[in-house]
Amino acid sequence: MIDLTGMEQSAARDDRQVRPRERIMSIDALRGFDMFWIIGGGAMFASLDKAFNSPTTAWIKTQLTHVKWEGFRFEDLIMPLFLFIVGVVMPYSFGKRLESGESKKKLYIHVVRRTVILFVLGMIAQGNLLEYDLGKLHIYSNTLQAIAAGYLISAIIFLNLNFVWQMATTGILLVFFWALMMLVPVPGHGAGVLTPDGNLAIYLDRMIFGRFIDGTDPPYTWMLSSMVFPCTVMLGVFAGHVLRSNKDAKVKVFQLFGAGAGCLIAGLIWDQVFPIIKHLWTSSFVLFSGGLCYLFLALFYLVIDVMGFKKWTFGFVVIGTNAIAVYMATHLVNFRNIAGVFVQGLEKYTGNWYPLISATAGFALVWLILWWMYRKKTFIKI
């Protein structure tokens, strides 16, 4: 059975069974925090600028848009944080299965099934699969597909290598990706070109996918970038090793913060010669975004699981327990339009506040559905 709340949700159940006194609620909350921005939170905060029209709200709105090419904004953290959390729970989920005596063969079948389902769901969510129109189809173009690739490769690394070699392999992949991107010449452009049209990764995508290539502008790259998607997942795996260890909670917090700071510094240094570019998932982007992921996890773990402030997390936990299900739902259904039935009459009275009201209504509808599912203990599975 494959849990559509993702690898992370099954791990949360595993965590209760393996270490019932050490439920890591911060993982659920952080997953929900990440999904909050995807399913409506981003639209709510971005619409504040329409209502207040201040430098602060303008800055917030900017942070909730992707960088065109080089650089980093808050919006660029959402996708890597999703992959990172998948990695955080792998030591829990795989550890439980191995400890229960499950064979590696059975575990590999489980991994492959999840990989295939995630990849197909990604094609549905963003690849226009349900359009049934080859002219609109994008084979590889979605976060879930990046998770599928990252999860598959990370699972192979995790199941076959010890901790030291897991770290070494992650580093080798980052360096190898850098070497390919900077040293292999692209016909008509040369080597080391990182423009949207001249880089090696997009050249390979065009060769492989042809007219089914990612349709964004500038395009994201996928095939060659699949080499480094697992590096983001593995950074999460290392965090999971820390959390699952028997070390003192304060030591865990210190290690997570330290890893975050180290990754940030390494990413900024590498950025000088291999720029931070999300569309390419460059090695510097992996480290910089991974550093932020570590810091968020450390903060959530400190506040929620160490200091014990848990009540405020309920709203995020409700979202996080059906994460991939709600991700798919919001890609297939326009909840904001549905909620508009109840609030659109207010537009003529509220002026510049209406975008905020509309975005809030759409998010509220999604959250109430998730809350009802949470109350009924309904977690979508396949």
SSE layout and pairing:
Blueprint: H1 7-18, H2 25-46, H3 48-52, H4 55-63, H5 78-99, H6 104-126, H7 143-160, H8 163-183, H9 200-209, H10 229-244, H11 249-271, H12 283-306, H13 314-320, H14 323-332, H15 335-343, H16 347-350, H17 354-375
Helix pairs in contact: 1-5, 2-5, 2-12, 2-13, 2-14, 2-17, 5-7, 5-10, 6-7, 7-10, 8-10, 10-12, 11-12, 15-17
Question: Could you name the key traits of this structure?
Answer:
382 residues; mainly alpha
Explained architecture:
By secondary structure, this protein is an all-alpha fold. It has one domain (7-375). The protein contains 17 helices and no strands. The model is unreliable at 1-21 (pLDDT under 50).
Concise structural overview:
Helices cover 67% and strands 0% of the residues. It is built from 17 helices and no strands.
Helix amount, in percent? Answer: 55-70%
* Count of individual domains: 1
Largest sheet: none
- Write down the overall geometry: globular
Number of strands: 0
Number of helices: 17
Distance between the termini: 6 Å
Contiguous runs where pLDDT drops below 50 for at least 5 residues: 1-21
The gyration radius over C-alpha positions equals: 21 Å
Content of β-strand: under 5%
What class, by secondary structure content? mainly alpha
Which sequence of SSEs, written as H and E, runs from N to C?
Answer: HHHHHHHHHHHHHHHHH
